[in-house]
Give the backbone structure.
Amino acid sequence: MIEKWWSEIITYGNLEHALLPELQIREKETIIPKNRYNAFHGTGLEEKLKSQKIMDVIIGGVMTNLCCETTARDAFVRNFRVFFLANGTQTASQDLHRASLKNLAFGFATLMTCDQAAKAL
């Protein structure tokens, strides 16, 4: 279905698929590939988090109103406590970004800035 919305799909190995160079993946960190908006769909993410007794998730990335919001809502439904990085997500327009933030703050996630998250950690 994603191909119906997006004419070009980001494929494994191309430039758009690469992580930002500023993101340094540490030895004990895991990258979980996904092929849907929802990071929980078919990835084993829920099982991995719960096996480590992790019940809080912090969500950032692109696009606020698609991948980030879908993952946040599903995390909430799966009984995770969701923290959503208001300035750590972005999308195609500020209207869409703000609409997602308002929806999430109304009953799915605690909004916070990247600085607030860093201080809390």
Summary: The beta strands are 56-62, 81-90, 110-112. The mean pLDDT is 91. The longest strand covers residues 81-90. The domain at 37-120 is CATH 3.40.50.850 (Rossmann fold).
